[in-house]
Each structure stands twice: as structure tokens, then as C-alpha cells.
Amino acid sequence: MNEFDLIQRLTRALPTNPSVVVGAGDDCAVLDAGVADRLLLFKTDAVVEGVHFAPGTAPEKIGHKALGRCLSDIAAMAGTPSAALVTIGLPGKFDPESVEALYAGLNALARRHQVAIVGGETTTNPGGIFISVALLGWVPRGKGVLRSGAEAGDAIFVTGELGGSLAGKHLDFEPRLAEARWLAEQFSLHAMLDVSDGLAGDLRHILRASRVGAELLATSIPISRQARVAAKAGSAAKPPLLAALTDGEDFELLFTVASRDAVPLLDAWKQQFPGLALTCIGKIKTGEGITIRDNQGVRPLTAHGYEHFS
After folding, report:
1. Which of helix, strand or coil describes residue 30?
2. Are the C-beta atoms of 276 and 159 separated by less than 8 Å?
3. Residue 236: its pLDDT value, please?
4. DSSP per position, 76-133
5. pLDDT higher than 80, residue 232
6. Is the dihedral of CA 215, 217, 222, 227 positive or negative?
7. Could you give the CA distance from residue 26 to residue 42 in angstroms, rounded to a whole number?
8. In sequence order, what are the residues at sequence separation of 6 or more whose Cβ sits closer than 8 angstroms to the Cβ of residue 3?
9. Are 64 and 131 spatial neighbours (Cβ–Cβ below 8 Å)?
10. What own/partner pairs with CB < 8 Å and gap ≥ 24 does 233-238 have?
11. 4: pLDDT confidence band, cut at 50, 70 and 90?
12. Is the pTM of this model over 0.90?
């Protein structure tokens, strides 16, 4: 059983109440807290030694990643983060200075985005370090973006570059919070998420939620320099395009808009965010699944992104 089969099995009978606007199945839960102009976002995520970071990783980077993953999910909903709780599990013999350094990395990112760290829990974990962050945020009513709104004919966009994140990006990425809020304010986004499990996997989340398919243009997918260099050096098991499709932990925004908005969006983006690439990589179509177009024609995309338990 893979990660997503397990999630589906566990979430099919979850209890709910009238405050739940969106429950399990999107980047964040959306709750109505009774505030006139805003909805509450709620997210939790964890990083585990040996899975999300290697033993010996600089503790500041571990802390940055632990909070950054949650911030990236708030960005995927076009929200603004507010306050977080942090649970940390440590082995029996730990270095207090390293734990303080981990919190220093987490706190620095929190301050940049005006997030309050309001408590949490410490516990022991013989298997190594793990950190779980629970994060609250807000999104204006009517401005939140879900996975489920993509429509046939939409243009598919992605920010930044993809692939090769293990070269360092997965530890020091910047959540695209400002970019996401600007997009939601300036344009009618139909669907959005952050690329954490790989383009091939995360795009399928949008397609399943929206009950549509997609066609990608291979030559348009923005492949990172790190993925290309690794392939040339022979140190990567994947060709660059496959790395961009499946590596994951890019933490870029993947979203769809009506095709009529594609050119105005690109023009406005260049003025607003000249240092960050934005690329149209394909289109939403009727049906299901993903096809990819290259110089050999159009074929089904069989590659998937990262899955726990696979």
C-alpha cells in the first residue's frame, strides 16, 4: 500500500463539524472561525531524520525546512501564516546547542514571515530527530485556492525550476507566500498547490480533485541547473527531465488559469517578480491522466512523484 492509498483509507470516515469548509484532501484544512472577512487555514507537517534530512545536516537548515514545508502549504492556498506549535522528538543523547541551532533556523524563517511560535512539545525518539509543526493561517473569503477548480482549456504554470533539490534546495527553499497572494489578488486562479512530491505526482493531485486530464510540453518544463549538472557528471540515476518530473521537494507553485489570462499573467509577473521564472508548461484537457508532448509525439506520462511507503 502506498502513501496515498493509506491516506484515502484513513480519511474516508473522518468526523467533521459545521466549522469545516474544506477537510482532508487539500494542502490545508479550511475552517470558518466566525471572522467576517477571513477563513482559517490549518496545516501540520513533519520532517524525520533519514527521510527528509540526512544525519549530520546543519541544524539551522533542519529547522528552516520544518517550518518552511508548512509555510509552502499555506502559500498553496494563497494564505498568510499566523502562528505555529512545534513538537520535537530527540534521541536520548542529544546536544542542546544543536537543538538551539535548529530552533534558530526555524525562528529566523518565522520572523521573516511574521509567524509567532506559541509553544509545542518535546519528547524522546530513539530513532533520531523528528519535528512536527502545526501552523495556522488566514485567507480572505473568496480568495482561497483549492486543488479542485482546474477546467479543460486552462493553462498550467509553475514557478522557478524543478529537479535536483537534493543538491541543497530542499533545505533552504523560500516558500512562495508573497507570490501566491499576489497571484490570487491579480488573477482568477482555478487550482493551485505546491510541488513537494514532484511535478508528475502533484499535478495528478489537481487532476484527480478536478476530474480532468493534462498535457505537458516536455521542452517547456523548467529543469534546474542542479539536475542538469548531476546528469552530466554521471552522479544522477535520472535524466534531467525525469528528475524535474519526479524528484520533488522543489516547493514551487503549480497552478492553472484560464488560457485567456496566460499572456497578461506572464507580462505582469515579469514586472512584479523579475528574479523568479514563471513558465507555462502545458494545458488542462478533458479526460484523465497526463500525456507529454516531445519531438517524438504525444505519449502517456507513466512517471510518478515521490511516495512514502513505496
Report:
1. strand
2. yes
3. 52
4. HTT-EEEEEEEEEEE-SS--HHHHHHHHHHHHHHHHHTT-EEEEEEEEE-TT--EEEE
5. no
6. positive
7. 11
8. 307, 308, 309, 310
9. no
10. 236/164
11. confident
12. yes
